[in-house]
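Input (structure):
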């Protein structure tokens, strides 16, 4: 008689404190407690992002009265439109090159085991721990007229005159792809690592070859990682400053370099605010459009 009584008493006690903390913790907090927990993050977001963006937008629209002349200047003068189109083009090409080079590396890292995985991960992460400035200067040493590449081509007799490799769009794309490659590889690797090997074995048992199983199983299931890596790389490429300024020079000026020039050299803060606002708007528009296209093709399941 005692055992059922004790068992029923235990059941009436309900879950312990540890169980309540583990199961459904977030849903048990009152709204006031939840708001207090989120307050530091909201304050950080407010003062580090929303407030500067709001000041930038207000400065571009009020000079001192309401005006759109700074935006009209951006869209009517061909120079600034060329810089905007060049920024989008270089960011797109760098992202495409990062995907072409990064997907095989992520696939190899996800499918390898043991020391090979550690070796590939080290090759991906060690450059990420190196300063962007150092990597940009390394590309200057490689691409300049008396650099390693031109000296090698001249000494081997392939060329008689050094090539103009630096201060070109190609140099900017190569250097930016190298710097941004880890941001493409790691999300794709994370998505590929979660794909069960049994799915590929099942596809093989059903008669699919390596190419067919990759196109119909691996690639569709890795699209969330492709989306994350592509989006991250593209957004970072749009706002890249150090590498285009050092490797590209004035001939291949991008929006970030132009904004810095307007703020530090010409001190034209309202026009710089208009440039930054347009770049932010274009980034958000392309982000939402890309997300819609990928979601329509079923690439955002689980994202």
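Output (sequence):
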């Amino acid at each position: 008689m005692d055992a059922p009584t004790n068992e029923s008493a235990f059941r009436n006690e309900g879950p312990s404190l540890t169980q309540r903390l583990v199961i459904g913790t977030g849903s048990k907090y009152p709204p006031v407690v939840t708001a207090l927990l989120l307050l530091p993050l909201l304050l950080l977001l407010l003062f580090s992002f929303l407030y500067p963006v709001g000041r930038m937008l207000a400065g571009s629209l009020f000079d001192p009265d309401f005006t759109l002349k700074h935006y009209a200047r951006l869209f009517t003068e061909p120079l600034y439109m060329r810089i905007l189109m060049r920024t989008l083009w270089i960011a797109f090409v760098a992202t495409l090159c990062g995907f072409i080079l990064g997907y095989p590396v992520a696939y190899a890292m996800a499918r390898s085991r043991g020391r090979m995985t550690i070796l590939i991960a080290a090759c991906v992460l060690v450059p990420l721990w190196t300063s962007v400035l150092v990597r940009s200067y390394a590309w200057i040493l490689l691409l300049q007229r008396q650099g390693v590449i031109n000296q090698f081509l001249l000494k081997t007799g392939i060329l008689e005159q050094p090539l103009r490799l630096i201060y070109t769009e190609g140099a900017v794309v190569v250097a930016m792809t190298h710097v941004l490659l880890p941001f493409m590889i790691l999300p794709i690797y994370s998505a590929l690592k979660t794909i069960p090997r049994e799915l590929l074995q099942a596809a093989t048992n059903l008669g699919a070859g390596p190419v067919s199983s990759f196109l119909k199983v691996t690639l569709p299931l890795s699209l969330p990682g492709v989306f994350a890596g592509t989006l991250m790389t593209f957004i970072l490429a749009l706002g890249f400053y150090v590498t285009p300024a050092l490797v590209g020079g004035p001939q291949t000026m991008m929006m970030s370099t132009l904004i810095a020039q307007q703020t530090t050299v010409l001190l034209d803060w309202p026009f710089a605010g208009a440039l930054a606002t347009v770049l932010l708007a274009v980034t958000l528009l392309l982000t939402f459009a890309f997300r819609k296209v990928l979601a329509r093709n079923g690439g955002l399941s689980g994202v």
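Notes: Residues 1-12, 17-26 have pLDDT under 50 and may be disordered. The longest helix spans residues 78-111.
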